[in-house]
Write a structure and sequence with these properties.
The complex is a heterodimer.
Chain A: E1 3-5, E2 8-10, E3 14-16, H1 25-28, E4 39-44, E5 57-60, E6 63-66, H2 74-81, H3 83-86, E7 93-97, H4 102-113, E8 120-124, H5 134-139, H6 141-154, E9 159-162, H7 170-179, E10 185-187, E11 191-194, E12 196-197, E13 202-203, E14 209-213, H8 218-231, E15 236-239, H9 245-254, E16 258-261, H10 264-267, H11 271-285
Parallel strand pairs in A: 3-16, 4-7, 7-8, 8-9, 10-15, 15-16
Antiparallel strand pairs in A: 1-2, 5-6, 6-14, 11-14, 12-13
Chain B: E1 2-15, E2 18-24, E3 37-41, E4 52-55, E5 58-60, E6 63-69, H1 73-78, E7 86-93, E8 105-111, H2 114-124, E9 130-135, H3 144-149, E10 153-158, E11 165-166, H4 170-180, E12 186-191, H5 194-207, E13 210-214, E14 230-234, E15 240-244, E16 251-253, H6 261-264
Parallel strand pairs in B: 8-9, 8-12, 9-10, 10-11, 12-13
Antiparallel strand pairs in B: 1-2, 1-7, 2-6, 3-4, 3-7, 5-6, 13-16, 14-15
Bound molecules: flavin-adenine dinucleotide, flavin mononucleotide and FE2/S2 (inorganic) cluster (FES).
Flavin mononucleotide binds at residues 17-20, 42-43, 64, 66, 68, 70, 96, 124, 127, 162, 189-190, 213-214, 217, 239-242, 262-263 of chain A.
Chain lengths: 300, 280
């Protein structure tokens, strides 16, 4: 079941998606963190951030729109409050980082490079919930290259840029990440979305708009992973609406080396572990020695 | 905190549009503290990704009950549950009510499901006090006998006057406070609509008393991971911080709460505050 994600050795290919698993302790009573392939923590920035006014999430058919606004305790707060806890587990910890400027990305990366117990960095260039900063990094390929290259210069740890869903150019972004020294890429982040209360004619979210996640986005995510994985040689993490081993298999067959479980943690906290078990029985049923034999095995 | 497949033991209508759902939940029930809640995955409603939070009304050994009202698709789907069905629970969750201070008179104030949320506190309290329940009409006053049976002095208020005082629950409360509040120090425990909570909080702050208010916020994960359920909590020197209603709450002391327009308007409605992202 083990996989190598650009230098991060994982005992299985199932990780948690950033922002859906807190910083680790939140789910530790419910599931064995040692049974996960990796833990990806919620996005961390240089300084603490308060985030958006409520309502911050709204449920839609098979989906969830969130506009948390990247609330986080900042690098120092995270290192002080959570890293000692996370170090107790035998599971790689990947920190999701973001900044409002390239300098902020660099500073956060540098701080984590000097911190023990961090297996890798996922670079969030694609969150739809902040207006300046990251957004332009995800929609403009030049800016995207600059951020990825800048972080690369500041960290020796495995670096995983996280791509925004982009129908037209996903392969270009994937190639740009690889060319700038990324060790892996992850995709997709949430899709820009909105829900309106017809009675009051107001947006439901405090931030008006947000990002859609959950089963509603899975077919989009599978296609994007398929397109991105064919464009690069570095490993791909497939994310988007994974609720079962069958969902995870779609991503793996499309080319993902690992997968991340996101919104499903809210619905059923045991999902990630059920996906691990389901993958194991699929391998047995199909007489496969390793998940690696399945990666990108789509028959066309 | 446990994830448990509970079994439906009993499910019945109790009037006022409320239903009593009794579940066998041996892992969760014995651990429940007053004011805590369970996060329920609605069976047969697969397009809904979020669980629904419900206060624990009663615990009896390995079983627990919730009182709920059909207000939307999730609660409507719950009404179909039959004895023997199974349902996924996450709980007990949240930081509930503190134990009433022995030197004060505990005063309960509730509307709607708030009456259910206060039952365990009423049952566990060594000293019985006064309860003020409000609603639209007599059938909205839930489980009144349960409280009087425990020895609480119950006062009711209804908008249509079908039970107790005709008007808002704060009126008999004020009458009681001016009659009794001089000699005895009340300590409030409240759960209900935001307007009611705010009114109770104001009285407590004015009188120099404590008020423990249970906040109703939309929830995502229920365990502190998603940051959906945040409430503004006062810090020193006029600053504030978000606290999670599912983790540090749902119960906060009145002085801690920063009341926003969006909270007053009711959290299931869109925020009426300017929609700009909060400045750091
Ligand atoms: C700590 C806590 C304890 C609660 N205890 C009880 C209880 O004991 N009895 C009871 O009847 N109700 C209780 N509620 C309210 C209950 O959670 C909602 O009525 C329920 O979630 C509505 O779901 P729905 O699918 O029927 O409504 P919909 O309107 O279809 O739900 C859509 C979304 O909005 C959320 N939502 C809607 N109304 C509320 C609300 N008032 N509070 C929080 N989220 C809401 C839902 O959870 C869901 O995510 C409690 C809420 C909280 C936060
Ligand atoms: C509440 C919430 C918060 C999120 N926060 C972050 C974040 O801080 N950084 C990030 O890169 N992605 C964040 N995401 C996106 C997820 O990591 C994931 O890419 C997306 O939700 C799609 O996967 P899913 O459908 O399995 O949830 C968040 C998603 C949700 C639902
Ligand atoms: S509901 Fe997720 S943090 Fe409270």
């Amino acid at each position: 079941m083990s996989v190598d994600l650009g230098g991060i050795r994982m005992k299985n290919p199932v990780m948690t998606a950033s922002g859906t698993f807190g910083y680790g302790p939140e789910y530790a009573d419910l599931i064995d963190l040692n049974a996960l392939g990796a833990i990806v923590v919620k996005g961390i920035s240089l300084h603490p951030v308060k985030g958006n006014p409520p309502p911050r999430t709204v449920e839609t058919a098979s989906g969830l729109i969130n506009a948390i606004g990247l609330q986080n305790p900042g690098v120092d707060g995270f290192i002080r409050e959570y890293v000692p806890f996370l170090r107790r587990f035998d599971t790689p910890v990947i920190v999701n980082i973001w900044g409002r400027t390239i300098e902020e990305y660099e500073q956060v990366a540098e701080r984590f490079d000097a911190t023990d117990g961090i297996a890798g960095l996922e670079i969030n260039v694609s969150c739809p919930n902040i207006k300046e900063g990251s957004c332009m990094f995800s929609s403009n390929i030049e800016m995207f290259r600059r951020v990825v290259a800048a972080v690369r210069r500041k960290t020796k740890r495995p670096m995983i840029p996280k791509l925004a869903p982009d129908h037209a150019h996903i392969a270009d972004f994937a190639k740009a990440a690889e060319a700038c020294g990324a060790d892996a890429i992850s995709l997709i982040n949430t899709l820009p979305a909105m829900a309106i209360d017809a009675e009051t004619r107001r947006p439901i979210l405090g931030n008006k708009t947000g990002g859609l996640s959950g089963p509603a986005i899975k077919p989009v995510a599978v296609k994007q992973v398929w397109d991105a994985a064919r464009a690069v040689r570095i490993p791909v993490v497939g994310i988007g609406g994974i609720y079962s081993a069958t969902d995870a298999l779609e991503f793996i067959i499309a080319g993902a080396t690992a997968v991340a479980v996101g919104t499903a943690n809210f619905t059923q906290p045991s999902t990630a572990l059920e996906v691990v078990e389901g993958l194991r029985s699929y391998l047995a049923r199909h007489n496969l020695a390793s998940v690696r034999d399945l990666v990108g095995s789509l028959q066309t | 905190m446990k994830l448990e497949e509970a079994r439906v033991l009993d499910h019945r209508e109790i009037g006022g549009g409320y239903r009593l759902l009794k579940l066998a939940a041996p892992a969760i029930s014995p651990a429940v503290q007053p004011g805590q809640f369970v996060h329920v995955r609605v069976p047969h409603y697969e397009t809904a990704l979020l669980r629904r939070p419900f206060s624990v009304y009663k615990t009896e050994g390995s079983s627990l009950s919730i009182l709920y009202k059909n207000v939307g698709r999730g609660t409507a789907t719950l009404t179909h549950l039959q004895p023997g069905d199974s349902i996924s629970l996450l709980g007990p969750l949240g930081h509930g009510f503190p134990e009433p201070a022995a030197e004060h008179v505990p005063v309960l104030v509730a509307g709607g499901y708030g009456m259910a949320a206060l039952y365990l506190l009423a049952r566990n309290a060594t000293q019985k006090g006064v309860a003020f329940f409000g609603g639209r009409s007599a059938q909205d006053i839930l489980c009144a006998d349960e409280f009087t049976g425990l020895g609480w002095d119950l006062h009711t208020a209804t908008e249509d006057g079908t039970s107790g005082y005709k008007g808002l629950v704060t009126e008999p409360l004020d009458a009681w406070l001016s009659a009794e509040g001089k000699d005895r120090t009340p300590e409030f425990f409240a759960c209900g609509p935001n307007g009611m909570l705010q009114a109770v909080g104001e009285r407590a702050i004015r009188g120099g008393w404590k008020a423990w208010l249970s906040m109703d916020r939309n929830m995502g994960c229920g365990v502190g991971a998603c940051l959906t359920c945040v409430q503004k909590i006062r810090q020193e020197e006029g600053s504030w911080q978000w606290k999670r209603c599912c983790k540090e709450g749902p119960v906060f002391e009145a002085r801690e709460i920063v009341w926003d327009e969006d909270v007053e308007a009711g959290n299931s409605k869109p925020a009426s505050t300017p929609n700009a992202p909060v400045k750091m």
